[in-house]
Write a structure and sequence with these properties.
The complex is a heterodimer. Chain A is of the alpha+beta class. Chain A contains two helices and four strands; from the N terminus they run αββαββ. In chain A, strand 1 and strand 2 form a beta hairpin. Chain B is mainly β. Chain B has a six-stranded mixed barrel with strand order 2-3-8-4-7-6. Classes of the chains: A alpha+beta, B mainly beta.
Chain lengths: ~80, ~130
């Protein structure tokens, strides 16, 4: 279960990703992008950890949403219970 | 690193987690999940106890094909003597999960006969190095 705050961040970040999808998937496929929706800034890195770390450095108190560029999801989880 | 197979045949190994570099780490047993491509899933109650900061979110695909959205939390994990800053997600289970991001570069041996789990470091590799592999 995610919070309303996170829900809003995800929705806005996905809109921003769609805006830059072509260039991100052409130039940064298989990398990760953390999108901070209030500023519209996005941060590309080779790992989830590095992308989020860079986003937090730029916007320490704000949430980002992280996408594996060109992939359906960041994680595949075999044993999670929902 | 030594773990064990429990009565329900879960392969469990210990992992030490903390919210920040100055905090005292807590050790948890986590279930080895070779179908999980991340580093660590922590039980929600444990994340709340540690007061881990929420930092981002991701989409994940579960074993039944369901896509879910998950919040991620920043934390420090101790792994083979090194401390890493990483993003982890939560579950509602008793045990957390250890995924292939932490297993990469190591030799995992699960002996269901003896009930032992051994994880042996094979080569030097940071958590970040295999995040996108």
């Amino acid at each position: 279960m995610i919070s309303n705050e996170t829900r809003a961040v995800i929705d806005r970040a996905k809109e921003i990703y769609e805006r830059y999808r072509d260039i991100l998937e052409a130039e940064h496929r298989d990398q990760f992008v953390a999108i901070e929706p209030l500023s519209g800034d996005y941060f590309v890195a080779d790992s989830v950890d590095a992308a989020v770390r860079t986003a937090r450095s730029a916007h320490p108190s704000r949430l980002s949403h992280t996408i594996w560029i060109g992939h359906e999801a960041v994680f595949h989880i075999g044993l999670i219970e929902q | 690193m030594k773990g064990h197979v429990d009565q329900e045949l879960r392969a469990l190994i210990p992992i030490r987690v903390t919210a920040g570099i100055t905090d005292e780490p807590r050790e948890y047993l986590a279930w080895v999940d070779t179908a999980f491509n991340g580093s660590f899933v922590i039980p929600r109650k444990k994340a709340e106890e540690l007061q881990l900061p929420k930092e981002s979110s991701v989409e994940a695909i579960l074993a039944n094909g369901t896509k879910v959205e998950l919040e991620t939390f920043g934390c420090m994990i101790e792994w083979f003597g090194e401390t890493y800053q990483t993003q982890i997600v939560t579950n509602d289970s008793t045990y957390g999960l250890i995924g292939t991001m932490l297993l990469a570069g190591n030799k995992l041996e699960i002996d269901y006969g003896d009930g032992t789990v051994t994880l042996e470091k094979k080569k030097s590799q940071t958590v970040d190095e295999h995040s996108s592999s």
